[in-house]
Fold this protein.
Amino acid sequence: MENTVVFDEPLTAEGCSGHLSSVEDAIFVIGGKWKLKIIIVLQENGNIRFNELQRNISGISARVLSNELKDLELNGFVKRVVHAEQTPVIVEYISTDYSKTLKPVIMALSDWGRKHKNNIREDVF
């Protein structure tokens, strides 16, 4: 294979375990079918209301979106802003600065996904 992972130091069992643990933590927080899609839509659109967010993510139910937004808010990726001074009350969701730290990860996943799809098409395997 042309792409190999090069570590700064020789990988020990302890180091490997640490990397696996870190990846597990990351996947736990942003894994699943919807979380990265929600983060991407929020980053592209700025302030967005619930129904508009749901329209931008095809196939997600209101219940699932609500639960995912709560999880993302608990982990600091989304901020929920309530405009109570307006009637009816308006609720918007905003991507936090912390969620923007995922941009390199999202871009790397996007690049990898594109290459993988091309490999499948070209029957590299």
Q: What stands out?
A: The radius of gyration is 18 Å. Residues 24 and 70 are 20 Å apart (CA to CA).
